[in-house]
Every structure is written in C-alpha cells, then in structure tokens.
Amino acid sequence: MQKLGLEVVDMQPVLSAVESSDCQPSLAGFSYENVTVTLWETESQKKVCQEVGNIMFTHTGLGGPVIYDLTVRGGSVITEKQTEIELSLISHEYFESQQDAWGSSMVQQVMSSLFPKKMQRFVPSYL
Question: Closest Cα to residue 35, out of 73, 79, 70?
C-alpha cells in the first residue's frame, strides 16, 4: 500500500464489545438505557472519556452502542494501558436526593424495582 502512496497505520480495535474478568454470566442479556459509562486510565486515575447510552451485559462483559462508542473514543488508551470502566445506572444526584426523601427502607424497595431479580443480589445491602 505504501508503494501506492497510501499511509499505513497500526490497527486497533474499534466498535468492539468489552471483555471483563469481573463479568457475571448470570446477568447476560440484561440491558439498560441512559447509562453513564466512564473510561478511566487505571494508573493515573485520569478520565479518558465518558458516554451516555445503552448497554447490555454479555456472558463475557459488556456490549451495546455506548460501549462501542467508548472503544472508538478510547482506542489507543485501551490497547496500550490498563483501564477501568465505571457504570452509573442511575445518577448519583438522583439517588442521593431520593435517599434523603424516602429513607433507607424506601430506597431499598425502589432499587429492587429498578433491577431485575437476578441483579438484585449485586445491589449493596446497605441501601
């Protein structure tokens, strides 16, 4: 290709799902809308990028449109450095405002209604 005058660049993954050693196969198939997904570079704790959109839990990690966008935006950092993904299924501000208004027992009831039964065991017990 270089003989034809075309620039050759190193390949990197784009539009790919994310595999994780922390995945829970029992959650495979669950999807959520309007999730805030943040990509962090682990060593420096620097935020690489943040997206809001739809995700789906898979048998090996995460997929869905917002994850694919994240792999494009975080491309070289993902392949060259250790990274972490943070998921916010509901905003911290919303949760805190409701916790103050409802008290802890009501928050547990509401959280249980937000998450499918298989996922409820992952909801912290102190809520």
Answer: 70
> Residue 107: what residue type?
V
DSSP 63-87: ESHHHHHHHHHTHHHHHHS-EEEEE
- Round to whole Å and give the CA distance between 89 and 52: 10
Q: How many CB atoms lie within 10 A of CB 109?
A: 11
In the chain, the amino acid numbered 12 is Q
Tokens 């905003």 -> residue: 91
- Are 89 and 35 within 8 A, CB to CB? yes
Which residues have C-beta within 8 Å of that of residue 19, sequence separation ≥ 6?
60, 61
pTM to 2 decimals? 0.67
Rounded Cα distance between 66 and 17, Å, is: 10
Per-residue pLDDT tens digits for 77-110:
877 888 898 988 776 677 677 666 666 666 666 6
